[in-house]
Amino acid sequence: MSGTSAFLEGLKAGLGEFVPMWALWLGSALISVAIALGLISLIAMFSVWLERKVAGHIQCRYGPMYVGWHGWLQSIADGVKLLLKEDLIPRDADRVLFMLAPALVLAAIVGAMAAYPLAPGILFADIDLGLFFIIAMSSMTTIGVVMAGWASNSKWTIYGSMREAAQVVAYEIPLGVSLLVPVMVAGTLNLREASAAQADFFGMGWFMFKNPFMLPAFLLFLVAALAETKRAPFDLPEAESELVAGFMTEYSGIRWSFFFMEEYAAMFLMSAIGAVFFLGGFESPLTHLAGQLFGRDLVVVGAGPEFAFTAINWGALVYQLVAGGTLLVKSFLGIFLMMWLRWTLPRIRIDQVMTMGYKYLTPLALVCVLGAALWEAGWQALVRS
Amino acid sequence: MQQTETAQGYVKNIWDTVKTTLVGMKITWRYMLQKPITVQYPDERMPIPDRYRGIHYLEQEKCINCLACARACPIDCIEMEAVRHGKELEWISFTLDYQKCMFCELCVYPCPKDCIHMGTEYAFVTFDRSEFKHDLLSFKGMAREARIRMKEAEAKKAAKDAAKAAGGGKSAEKGGEG
Amino acid sequence: MANETRESAQGSSRIQATGPGEVTVDIRTPDLEINFGPQHPATHGVMRILMRADGELVTGAQPHLGYLHRCAEKIGENVEWLQYLPYTDRYDYLASMNNNLGYSLAVEALLGIEIPRRATLIRIICAELNRIGSHLVAFGTYGLDIGAFTPFLYTFREREWMMALFEKICGARLTYSYIRIGGVFNDAPPGWFEEVARFCDVFDEKWKEYCDLLLVNQIYVKRTANVGVISRDMALDFGLTGPMVRGSGIDWDLRRDMPYMCYGEIWRDGAFKIPVARGEMGALGDCWDRSWVRVMEMVESTKIVRWCLDHMVDGPVIGEIPKTLKVPAGEAYVGIENPRGELGHYVVSDGGKVSIRTRVRGPSFCNLAVLEDVLPGSLVGDAIAIIGSTDIVVGETDR
């Protein structure tokens, strides 16, 4: 039983007689969306700051230094600036689509965020098809991007959105196929369960070490995730030296920042998927220790029959925080890797992106799946005999 | 990622890409750990060498209003005006239009008295274009000492004239001057 | 032309009955006309290229010039000989020293005066350092065009040092006006030569890093090799010079083939080589070859600088030049090896204080012409790579 449903059960038990059930559902959904939106904003802000610092230090510069300690408040200052900027809509643009596109992009990524497990017991939604849901929802952003490119009525934006469409279609396949490898080992698409399956070996029983085909699959996933999230060297949809700013050329102010938030949230989600399905998810020696000390209780808030917040399970809370923090750190390490790659590599050309997706990543990912399957089958046979 | 015919080329492409990417990442990682080389500009500044060609400064006492610098200027951005009182110069203006000036230092070399120089000041910001027409004189008119010297010289001359007039038996009163 | 048929297909009816029960539908789409520039991040200034593109495929390109035209040559006919010097800084603002040098040599050819040896050596040091600086920009911004941001800042780090060196010797960072008619404006400050030697030593380490980081990076190679191939014949036909012509495998360098100052002596001493592309990564004359030539030229330049430092003599740095310069009547053309190619100055004098004809042969201008033939058939991403590899400075194409 996940935290949310337990919470909802508690609410139902406490307030069920005063408030109808649909209102409870709606209220908790709205709260969840607000939390997800806030989380995305926070992640985007921190990632932007991190990106600027990483880029700066790689390039022998400091990056932002003035707003707060080493400029850590810079993103907030930028956010205020973006809010105050004039919201320009080109005269010949398709106004409705132009305004709808950033909203769609943000909505899709907030939706995808629903499957992100904050901690083993604190989830927005404990979806059995969690991985599938995240990939599906984050692919939805492509529609928003194409919409933005079309609605802007500019040749550069059309180029950007067409490239995005081609690229995402090409890289969905290797992304999904390479994720099949750990999914096959885990036997589940649920992020929480996949993470729990890696708890052996003192929290180091990561899928990464469980199968020799996992490392190439991880590398393939990494490349495909870079392409999915439009990060360099696959940043062709925005390609600032080729297409000015690609699909967001005509956007400004807060609408533009929606695209930005989407980019960083997508990066975060891809890193989180990678962390969960390859790098142990919540599990680390530290999580193992916390689990040993405080138990692996999933329910943080006690669900008493008379009142919603009767008891808080402090031990479980500590465990949840350690586990959630582990995943967060792993996700940001993934983001850091993406940034490091971005500030190292040149951009690939569009035909090379296609070649790489269809001729290199897809076959190799299939080979990985086949190999992993054979290995697993052989392993099982060995165990049985 | 190019089209390859052979399986060898296929594998080589993958290998080269991974290897060169790792080499690049090693270099960028090394620089990430080093101390940045930039300075935080308004707080600390890079040293400016002595020969820096910035905003001009004028040693007004030495200048003889010979117009050599104005003639040497390719874009005629130097204008000067002065009234000569005997040996002393009364300056009215010595302006340099920094909208035009291209900091070529050609005005500095022909100066016979070596009195116009280029300073190390480089930031020159105003809200009004007319302020770019910069007066190089530290003050309008004459220096205080020059004014005193001029007054002394004129007083001496007046005294001399008065003595001459008294000696000649004629009385020629000279009016004082301001 | 394919373009014309496409347009006519657009104009006429797309669906035609071609026989009984048979309909032919033309599904070709008209080409997209893209206005590439004048305000575009990859045009290196304010150049405008009118591109036609069939999707990602460029089918036609036409460079438009003139956004930075400042009548530099006409100004040369209105100001005195020495006064034109600051204007030469401003056409190829990445290689001001070379521009100063070219103009000074042209006027000196008319004057027929002797330049002190120390002045000549300082001139060569400055010109070669400026070549390094210019190629650093070319290589760095080329990486930027390809999408690699970091090498750009690494190259600018070295360039910053080079500019600091120039700042020490002449006081300016970009528009130097240092090499003058008759010599150089002032002698090197104490310790300057030592710092130049140190710069060369450090640079010897750094260029290998650029190679590792960018030049041999597989993505970079795939982006540039076999892209924008300029064949030998094409290079000759278009009159390309500098790294463009050497990138096409033609061994032509004015420093050796038409030596000026004491480059001939340095060449005979075997102090430097002329890097000529061999088509290592793809076809001869592609973008990779050109960027390789630029990197190697920087290395050769440090060798020339070292030779000059070793052979430095004491003495005056300016020849016998009268205060008001009157140039004997006549005409002179002097071409020098600018970082971008042959920079020629043609000056005519009637014996007065002002030139009656000043004409500049700009390498960027001539190298730019090849774009119209090279761009069609490439992808939009390649078009950026090709434009970047020509390394034009718009200030010079327009003057």
Give the count of structural domains of chain A. 1
Helices and strands of chain B: which structural class? alpha+beta
Radius of gyration of chain A: 22 Å
In the sheet with the most strands of chain B, the strands line up as 2-3-5
The average pLDDT score of chain A comes to: 82
Strand portion of chain A, in percent?
Answer: under 5%
Number of strands of chain A: 2
Mean pLDDT across every amino acid position of chain B: 78
> What percentage of residues of chain B falls in helices of 4 or more residues?
25-40%
Shape of chain A: globular
Number of domains of chain B: 2
Molecular structure report:
- The complex is a heterotrimer of chains A (385), B (178) and C (399).
- Chain A has 385 residues and is mostly helical.
- Chain A is built from 13 helices and 2 strands, in the order H-H-H-H-E-E-H-H-H-H-H-H-H-H-H.
- Chain A has a two-stranded antiparallel sheet.
- In chain A, a hairpin with a 2-residue loop joins strand 1 and strand 2 (122-123).
- In chain A, helix 2 packs across helix 3 (74-84).
- With 178 residues, chain B is an alpha+beta fold.
- Chain B is 31% helix and 15% strand.
- In chain B, the strands form 2 sheets. Chain B has a 3-stranded antiparallel sheet with strand order 2-3-5. A two-stranded antiparallel sheet of chain B has the order 1-4.
- In chain B, a hairpin with a 2-residue loop joins strand 2 (78-85) and strand 3.
- Chain B is rod-shaped.
- In chain B, 15% of the residues are buried.
- With 399 residues, chain C is α+β, with helices and mostly antiparallel strands.
- A 3-stranded antiparallel sheet of chain C has the order 3-4-5.
- In chain C, a hairpin with a 2-residue loop joins strand 1 and strand 2.
- The two termini of chain C are 34 Å apart.
- The interface between B and C is medium-sized, with 32 and 36 residues.
Topology (elements, then pairings):
The complex is a heterotrimer of chains A (385), B (178) and C (399).
Chain A lengths: L2 H13 L5 H38 L15 H11 L10 H19 L3 E3 L2 E2 L6 H22 L3 H32 L4 H6 L3 H4 L10 H15 L24 H25 L7 H10 L19 H29 L7 H35 L1
Chain B lengths: L6 H27 L22 E3 L9 H5 L5 E8 L2 E10 L18 E3 L14 E3 L8 H24 L11
Antiparallel strand pairs in B: 1-4, 2-3, 3-5
Chain C lengths: L1 H10 L3 E5 L2 E4 L6 E5 L11 E7 L2 E8 L7 H5 L8 H5 L6 H16 L5 H30 L3 H21 L8 E2 L2 E2 L7 H24 L2 H7 L7 H6 L5 H4 L7 H4 L5 H6 L18 H24 L19 E9 L2 E9 L7 E5 L1 H6 L2 H4 L5 H11 L3 H5 L1
Antiparallel strand pairs in C: 1-2, 3-4, 4-5, 6-7, 8-9, 9-10
Helix pairs in contact in C: 4-5, 5-6, 5-13, 5-16, 6-7, 7-13, 13-16
